[in-house]
Amino acid sequence: MDISSKVAAIRDHFNLNNFSFSKRIGVTGTTVDSIINGRPQSDGSRKKTKPGYDVLSSIINEFDINPDYLFGKSEIMSLKRKNSYQVYSGVPQVVATDELGNENIVYVPIKARAGYLNGYGDMDFIQKLSSFHMPHLSDGTFRCFEVQGNSMVRTFFDGDLVFGKYVEGFSEVKDGRVYVIISKNDGIVLKRVINRIEEKGKLILKSDNKDGNYPTYTINADEVMEMWYVTMFASKQMPEPVDVYERLHDLESKVVELEERLGKTE
User: Fold this and answer.
1) Closest CA to 28 of 1, 58, 2, 4
2) β-pairing, 142-146 with 224-234?
3) Which CATH number fits domain 96-234: 3.30.160.270, 2.60.40.10, 2.10.109.10, 3.40.50.300?
4) Residue 229: which residues within 8 A CB-CB, separation 6 or more?
5) For each of the chain's 266 residues, which pLDDT tens digit applies?
6) pTM of the prediction?
7) Cα–Cα distance measured from residue 17 to residue 13, given in angstroms and rounded to the nearest whole number
8) Minimal CA–CA distance to 27: which of 1, 47, 51?
9) What is the rounded CA–CA span in Å between residue 152 and residue 233?
10) Distance, CA of 137 to CA of 54 (rounded, Å)
């Protein structure tokens, strides 16, 4: 195997496509494509680009790759055995793109939640999910999750859609914000989060529903596989009018009735 085939094997081992692989190592998708597939030539052939030192160093460090594997001196790819779950990383394991290479928003409905826990890093699984593009959600990688249950009632309801931006590191998690958390033990949950990673290596997860059935609990950092910061949502629930509006409506009605009475006496 030449070095381009070795790079392709590493990409496939981690269930990535060229675009998501390029984000992990900090280069463009075009750079990875030119290494693996080659650049088109005037005669119709393709010439593969040899990866430079910086690219190889990024691959080795990001994926803990055995350098001897890349240079044909060993058949052992990884320096250590990977866990069955991928560790939390700065970019999603897999992203969906359109024919122009622009990122799409992958939609995760309730019926796909169980499969997502095992398939979040599986390119074939992600590609089978519906995806779409929203022009104003372009600054980052976004995913759409269907809300299940009533733990966040008052803010989100069963069947609502939340749009989350991928969190690149625990330092970005801000207290009091709402996140979709994908974890080994709890699957997919929507919670308000308090960040205690630095002090205790934990996140505190809180529900907005205060009926007593949804207690606050903690989750260890090493259980978290993905986090998505909720930036937007869509709901079928129309909010009830607050007290001040009800009083204004009542006052308006009384003013109308008073005007009608005054009009009849003139």
Assistant:
1) 58
2) unpaired
3) 2.10.109.10
4) 164, 165, 166, 167, 172, 173, 177, 178, 179
5) 789 999 999 998 887 888 888 888 888 889 999 999 998 888 888 899 999 999 999 899 888 899 999 988 888 888 764 444 445 666 677 788 777 777 899 999 998 887 888 777 777 888 889 999 888 888 889 999 999 999 999 899 999 999 999 998 899 999 999 999 998 778 899 999 999 999 989 999 999 998 888 889 999 998 898 999 999 999 988 766 556 556 766 777 777 778 777 876 66
6) 0.61
7) 10
8) 51
9) 13
10) 31
Select 3-70's CATH number: 3.30.530.20, 1.10.510.10, 3.40.47.10, 1.10.260.40. 1.10.260.40
Phi, psi angles (nearest 5°) of residue 147: -75, 135
Contact 180, 223 (CB under 8 A): no
Domain ranges of the chain: 3-70, 96-234
Fold matches, 3-70 and 96-234:
no
> What is d(CA 75, CA 201) in angstroms, rounded to the nearest whole number?
36
Which residues fall within 8 angstroms of residue 30, CB to CB, at 6 or more apart? none
Quickly list DSSP for 18-81: HHHHHHHHTS-HHHHHHHHT-EE-TTS-EEPPPP-HHHHHHHHHHHTB-HHHHTTS-S--BSSP
How many beta carbons lie within 10 A of that of residue 15, not counting itself?
A: 19
Euclidean distance between the first and the last CA atom of the chain, given in angstroms as a whole number: 100
